[in-house]
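# nightly structure sweep
# worker-07 picked up a monomer target from the shared queue
# config: single-sequence mode, recycle default, output format = structure tokens
# input follows
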Amino acid sequence: MMAGTIFDRTRTPMTVWFTACWLFATQKDGVSAQSLQRALEIGSYPTAWAMLHRLRSVLVRPGRDRLSGTVEVDETFIGGDEPGLRGGRARGKKVLTGIAVEVSAANGIGRCRMAVLADGSAESLHPFVTGAVEPGTRVITDAWQGYRGLEALGYVHQRRSQRAARAAGEDPGELLPAVHRVASLAKRWLLGTHQGSVSEAHLPAYLDEFLFRFNRRRSSSRGMVFYRVLELAAGHDPVRFQDLLAGKYPGQHRTPGAGATRRAWTGPRRTGRGEPASSSCNYLSHSG
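# output follows
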């Protein structure tokens, strides 16, 4: 019955899986692998970690609707402070993340989309916008050059200049209030539930979980959220443990030239930072 789903060939009893799904869906701020291990009395930490990551892997519904109406778009760095980096779009261990948020006078903040970006160029920002926002939508951004050309892609583009706001004595942080609010909530959630210990390779999965929760924050029935998690899990292809790790193969790292240290695979081990050690870098020391 479970063949062809994320529960395929699992050695964990389905009663334990359903309990894990319930905890995952009904806890307001989610559950960490360490908390799940304690709650389910699972002997293996990597098992609890893999269960949660299997659930995170199914949360994006295929063919979901894009954002519409009026949408704020911006980017934020998700990561800890680094010497010599003063914010902005500078490179470093921080992870640049695009955020798109529906806004309306009646309901305030609506749905949201987030995605990790390679950089702040138009080559990265334009695909993010077209993938997250329906053409014809009014898109509000700051004056960053990477957003130029959105009109040619079918959007009504409104640019808000931080420099002009400062000159007028206004707070530049209030130009895109919905985006900044969501970015703050995402970073607070990662700090609170996962102690900020999320590697760059696994950040997209955690963002998917945050968005799943955020976009259903007004749901009055936790049971329906639980049902949706089961529905998505049952309709998803099998996910193997190796697929959840950062490298193509378990324990594989970037080459030393890319700033990482290689180590031989000796099986998953717990780092004490919220996930098995499949990456040598943690990008959230303090993350749409």
